[in-house]
Amino acid sequence: MTTPIHPPGTPSPYEDERLPCGRPLSRVRADREPGEGTWIMESAAARTLRAAAEEVPGVRAGSCRIIAGPNAGTSQVTVHLGVQVPLSTPDLTVLADEVRRHVTETAELSLGLDVAAVDIHITDLADAPGRSEDESGR
Question: Which CATH homologous superfamily contains domain 24-128?
């Protein structure tokens, strides 16, 4: 299971560990009562959000960081997501908005995260899979 559960009112057993796969995010699933102690590791949440981004045709998700809000005690997060998009994309802003919508819905509905912002970083423009150099005009 990707969400370790621990007794209410006790710190996460993972809080002091600095694992290479990330840190725990508290307050998963907004429909749970506060203090129920449900946690998900950032790496598992990031994997879920990358999959949501890749639901948009032609998008390949890369690095995904989930950053807690600047104020102590806030449950809001900001998602930083790098994506590769098709070279033939007519409007990058429209595509980024679609990716942002998919990621926000998944973060809020599936993971219960309170999303303040989703920052989309277009890291590469690529030919469609399977196109040869002759077809791309190079």
Answer: Cation efflux protein, cytoplasmic domain (3.30.70.1350)
Q: For 19-40, give the DSSP string.
A: BTTB-EEE--STTSPTTS-BEE
| Dist CA 111 CA 97 (whole Å) | 20
Delimit the domains of the chain by residue range: 24-128
Q: How does pLDDT run across 54-93, given as a tens digit for each residue? A: 999 999 999 999 988 766 556 789 999 999 999 999 999 9
Model pTM above 0.90: no
Return the beta strands (E) in the chain as ranges.
24-26, 39-41, 60-68, 76-86, 114-126
Angle at 67 between CA 71 and CA 44, to 5 degrees: 135
129 alpha-carbon distance from chain centroid: 24
